[in-house]
Amino acid sequence: MKTTCPYCGVGCGVEVKALDAPVSGDRQHPANFGRLCVKGSALGETLMHDGRLLWPQIDGQRVSIDAALDHVAAGFRRIIDQHGPQAVAFYGSGQLLTEDYYTANKLMKGFIGSANIDTNSRLCMASAVVGYKRAFGADAVPCCYDDLEQADVVVLVGSNAAWAHPVAWQRLVQAKAERPEMQLVVIDPRRTASCDLADVHLALQPGSDSALFAGLLNWLAHHAGIDASMLPHLANVEATLAACEAWDVATVAAACQLSEHDIVAFWQLFAAQPRVLTLWCMGINQSQTGSDNNNAILNAHLLSGKIGRAGCGPFSLTGQPNAMGGREVGGLANQLAAHMGFSAAEVDRVARFWRSDRVAQQPGLTAVYLFNAIERGDVKAVWIMGTNPAVSMPEGNRVAHALAKCELVVVSEVSAHSDTAQFADVLLPAQAWGEKNGTVTNSERRISRQRSFIAPAGEAKADWWLLAQVAQRLGFGAAFAWQHPGEIFAEHAALSGFENRGTRAFDISALATITREQYDQLAPVQWPITAASPNGTARLFADRRFYHADGKARLLPPAIPVKTLMTTDYPLLMNTGRIRDQWHTMTRTGNVPRLMQHYDEPFVALNPLDAAAYGLSHGDVTRVQSALGWCSGRVTLDSGLQRGQIFVPMHWTRQFSGQANVDGLVAASCCPDSAQPALKQTAVRLQLL
Ligand code: SF4
């Protein structure tokens, strides 16, 4: 059986030959060609039922699935009737399959009539979405993983791909072994495992990325780095270049705390080589200037013409297996469906397609603001699917408090003991990887099948089925009468092409008539998938036509970098992120003993000189305190961290360590354009325990 890994956005193909045999990489899958990382290769060990949520529960008591669904529908109906549709919300996950996401979005936005459906993808790629839409006119990633092998220069910004996207990294390692002349530039305040392969590491100040790329644009303009053939395809060039004039090398060096020599060397490399691929991740997106950081990167690729060709372009690496699929169906509160927004024409179009007169007319609450609304009592019912916001949201303690006072909390989950499950009035058992059946989309726009190969544990159900059952109980049955996820996928594909005429980047209308058998056999394929490109599309913008009405891409003026202010009380800057062998809040990977061998407990990494200054030694346990809370971890000395900066992994929660998650220390301040929280820069202090 061929299926897809449920962890990161590389989206590796997986083969399962027998239930008692280890899983292996799918040699035919174009994302990984047989490779798997340690998490992917341990997938077979996550299929056990230990800790699984096996039965529906109301207030902790086992009930029948019908009783649980009746209770959910009655609760949502009562609150909608009393307080209106804005008083209810869904909060989803990049772990959901596209068919689950489509159903949730259709129910909430199409029939309940509220756009209060957001997702943990808000914490991951919302800034990239804004960047792409502003630059290209559509949320469209131009590149593909094959570009890793074809680039002359790879620039890795705010990404420790060696740990967070290991198979993409393996491809890069092999490409560099075969072509040592390929240059790798890593731009990251921290010296990470990804720097081991780098020709250049620019250890800039946290939050100064946009200055580096604004300076690059200025450099390109003054050093023959503009591709003149791109200019007819670009808008807002002069104003953007004028705004970048201030970013000369001395100013950039001061903002980034880098040497002028190193900065110019990077800019010269970028300008000189025809095939430059820029990869980025959370260091760019999880920032108060996250959207502008994205546009600063896109500016440089557009002006220099390094886009739409093999081996070059701007390429965001999504964190989750289906963050892209969620974006495609409208899983974010500010999108309607099929990459459409909330203009009157788009609302009307979707309303006619769904045959509903209740379609939401305006964007809903995004993640941070959704939980704030629950805390205020404005949102009185929430259905949380496949995610753990009580610990993964910034100001997690506040989210937990909000859930504790919410009138109706429904949690559909795989894990019986997640930190968020403790707040559920109704627990619905969800199918896990290996049980569920549908599609996901990886970072390169490739749609792949996740296939079921084992029977569901206990009474676990598909998320789309649970949602459709509640939709039917709410009286919307005819619109949710699917019997199989393939029928949902076909409807989703039809909507992507409905009255489209090629005006939307996301178009998979060639799959709108897909049969059950074709869906079962569907091979990995990259969108757009249209009558003109029935086998998918590897790269976008080869024709230099973009999705703004005039066909031109837009340059945007740079952001002013935001500095986190340290105080004498909180003199250190804390960065958070993934480690190699764990996934999110560990509800799956934390149960696999061999995945605990890399790190088996929470740690606090800091520069040895800082440790000495605080009287800390390797192996001590230290408390990390911010203005909002504290957590603790084992001191790890790491000379790759600059003085004054520490790193704490995001994974450990009360469920696995008995202590608070690090996100409880982080303020819920967001990029104003994307509403993505800035999770990378928190002022803290340390204290020996
Ligand atoms: Fe899974 Fe990502 Fe590892 Fe591939 S690289 S096996 S998708 S976790």
TrEMBL record:
Q: Which residues form the 4Fe-4S Mo/W bis-MGD-type domain?
A: 1-62
**Keywords assigned by UniProt, alphabetized:** 4Fe-4S, Iron, Iron-sulfur, Metal-binding, Molybdenum, Nitrate assimilation, Oxidoreductase
Q: Which cofactors go with this protein? A: Mo-bis(molybdopterin guanine dinucleotide); [4Fe-4S] cluster
**Similarity comment: family membership:** Belongs to the prokaryotic molybdopterin-containing oxidoreductase family. NasA/NapA/NarB subfamily.
Q: What is the protein name given in its UniProt record? A: Nitrate reductase
**Species assigned in the record:** Pantoea leporis
Parent-record interval covered: 1 to 689 of 867
